[in-house]
Write a structure and sequence with these properties.
Layout: H1 48-53, H2 67-80, H3 84-97, H4 99-108, H5 110-117, H6 121-127, H7 129-132, E1 139-142, H8 149-154, E2 163-167, H9 184-195, E3 204-210, H10 216-219, H11 234-252, E4 257-260, H12 265-275, E5 281-283, H13 284-304, E6 313-316, H14 320-337, H15 341-345, E7 348-352, E8 355-356, H16 382-389, E9 393-396, H17 406-415, E10 420-423, H18 435-441, E11 447-450, E12 457-459, E13 462-464, E14 467-468, H19 475-485, H20 492-504, H21 508-512, H22 523-540, H23 553-560
Parallel strand pairs: 1-3, 2-3, 2-4, 4-5, 6-7, 6-9, 9-10, 10-11, 11-14
Antiparallel strand pairs: 7-8, 12-13
């Protein structure tokens, strides 16, 4: 398994920072091509000696500037844009022009740029992907490629792939079916795997599987870049996915992590259960979200007191995210309280579009909802459920904005000294309530977290800092842990380890400010710690193939992390 500096042909890892690298693999007469290779281009940072050695003299203005100066200039330019989508386009252009500078910008300005390259701006980018499309990023596999998927994978220039993020575009964020235009999600996710988790860019592969779209607006759009047909379903769909999964294993081996992203509920659960025994697969919407939310709850318990088992949980939304979070909470509860899993599930209630999940509805429920249908009279509204069940924790994963109404939030505050309210739906317009509403309606007593970022809130002279339950806290470090251990399967205990590792990163100083997640500025340190815990669990479970086990996994994780500093060329 590639470790820090092992097989590091592009000089991407921290372990090889001081080594000279050769930017050419063939003989050249002009540096023109070097300036158009995003992996090696340094722009005006090429030294005099490099300009002579690599035929660049005259192809660049005479000034020589440092990477820090370039970063300062690009950030200045980005801040001039008033439209967020313009910033997104500028960042994508930079990624295609100068890869290291793109990642240096993202790492050094993570809190400012994370919402640009990922939620919420990436949602708008996907909606307009056909219009803003300039150069292809990632691989597109469509129904036209059936029987030739392996050949398509072989067209990708890199051979040492460690992480694939794949979507079929059917459920992009809370925006619905965006078909082929969902490619913005795998591209954005993998940028974060690199910037936040340190996975090498050359080892990342974004893929969109185009099986059509049921979005009539896109089918009628002259600029739509995907197949103009209704979505394939059933056997035709699953045959293409089966061919894809087999081809990935055949081309890249057993140890490539395949992350399913933004698949519709029915396919997401089916694909995860079907391939988790035979492939190294992970679903961020189900497992990543659950791991981050569990970490937030573990932190929140330090504020409100008691253990997981002492709380009562009510979810609005019983799809991938809701049931995934609920199941992981039950697993953690079962592990620490030594209770049967079914007993732990009984503390967790879910409300879907038809009302509370109860025993009398069990026959009509989808299989992933059934474990959470308990004995209770049928209730149709969230307010009724809150008043009847009296939860200590209210979690929104519905994708529907403004559903935590004033009545609901005030009811939570009426029987809880410190109600825990997580409004997790993305983007911001779909959030169940805002931070300001949560703090105002509970008179400042809420322990609040959201899926999209909210600014600090002033209430009666006190400033409250809302936590952001962002999957980017977990999946980059989780992916790095899987890669550095050479894990061959993902186990639930590895997700629990990631949650516990993230919760441990929250200090008393953070709690004093009302934060239940650590600041994003430390994200690479957080990711290294999560990677170490995940890798340790993979070794303990006998799932790691990289032997012998490193003595210091945190140090080893850091040595394997991508660093965006320019390298010196021979």
């Amino acid at each position: 398994m590639a470790g820090g500096g092992v097989e590091d042909v592009y000089g991407e890892d921290r372990a090889t920072e001081e080594q000279l690298i050769t930017p050419w693999s063939f003989s050249v007469a002009s540096g023109h091509q070097l300036l158009r290779d995003p992996r090696h281009n340094k722009g005006l940072a090429f030294t005099e000696a490099e300009r002579d050695a690599h035929y660049l003299r005259g192809l660049l203005p005479p000034a020589i500037v440092s990477q820090e100066h370039q970063e300062k200039k690009v950030m200045h330019n980005l801040r001039q844009y008033t439209v967020p989508l313009q910033r997104y386009i500028a960042m994508m252009d930079l990624q295609e022009r100068n890869e290291r500078l793109f990642y240096k910008l993202l790492i050094d300005n993570v809190e400012e740029l994370l919402p640009v390259v990922y939620t919420p701006v990436v949602g708008e980018a996907c909606q307009k992907y056909g219009s803003i499309y300039r150069r292809p990023q990632g691989l597109y596999i469509s129904l036209k490629d059936k029987g030739k998927v392996l050949e398509v994978l072989k067209n990708w220039p890199e051979r040492s792939i460690q992480v694939i993020v794949v979507t079929d575009g059917e459920r992009i964020l809370g925006l619905g079916d965006l078909g082929c235009q969902g490619m913005g999600i795998p591209v954005g996710k993998l940028s974060l795997y690199t910037a936040l988790g340190g996975v090498r860019p050359s080892a990342c592969l974004p893929i969109t599987i185009d099986v059509g779209t049921n979005n009539q607006t896109l089918l009628d759009d002259e600029y739509y870049i995907g197949l103009k047909q209704r979505r394939a379903t059933g056997e035709e769909y699953h045959e293409l996915l089966q061919e894809f999964m087999n081809a990935v294993k055949q081309n890249y081996g057993e140890k490539v992590l395949v992350q399913f992203e933004d698949f519709a509920n029915h396919n997401a659960f089916d694909l995860l259960s079907k391939y988790s025994k035979s492939h190294l697969v992970f679903n961020d919407d189900i497992q990543g979200t659950a791991s981050v939310v569990l970490a937030g709850l573990l932190s929140a318990l330090k504020v409100i007191g008691g253990g997981l088992v002492d709380q009562t949980y009510l979810f609005l939304g019983a799809g991938e995210a809701g049931t995934g979070i609920a199941e992981l909470i039950a697993l953690e509860m079962s592990k620490h309280a030594d209770l049967p899993l079914d007993d732990c599930r009984k503390k967790i209630w879910l409300v879907d579009s038809k009302g509370l999940l109860v025993e009398s509805r069990k026959e009509s429920l989808q299989h992933f909802k059934k474990p959470f249908a308990h004995e209770h009279e049928p209730l149709t509204t969230l307010l009724e459920a809150v008043q009847s069940i009296k939860p200590t924790v209210l979690i929104g994963t519905s994708g529907v904005g403004k559903t935590f109404t004033q009545e609901v939030v005030e009811a939570m505050a009426s029987f809880n000294e410190k109600p825990v309210i997580f409004s997790l739906s993305n983007p911001t317009s779909h959030s169940e309530c805002t931070a300001e509403e949560a703090y105002t309606w509970t008179k400042g007593t809420a322990v609040f977290a959201s899926g999209s970022p909210f600014d600090p809130v002033e209430y009666e002279g006190k400033t409250y800092s809302p936590g952001q339950s962002n999957n980017a806290y977990v999946f980059p470090g989780f992916g790095l842990g899987v890669v550095i251990s050479g894990a061959i399967r993902v186990h639930d205990d590895m997700l629990l380890a990631a949650s516990e590792a993230l919760a441990e990163q929250v200090s008393q100083e953070h709690y004093d400010k009302g934060l239940i997640f650590p600041p994003f500025t430390n994200i690479r340190k957080i990711s290294a710690n999560i990677a170490a815990k995940v890798a340790a669990k993979a070794y303990d479970l006998g799932l790691a193939s990289r032997l012998p086990r490193p003595d210091d996994l945190v140090q080893y994780a850091e040595s394997c992390m991508y660093t965006p500093l320019y390298r010196s060329y021979r």
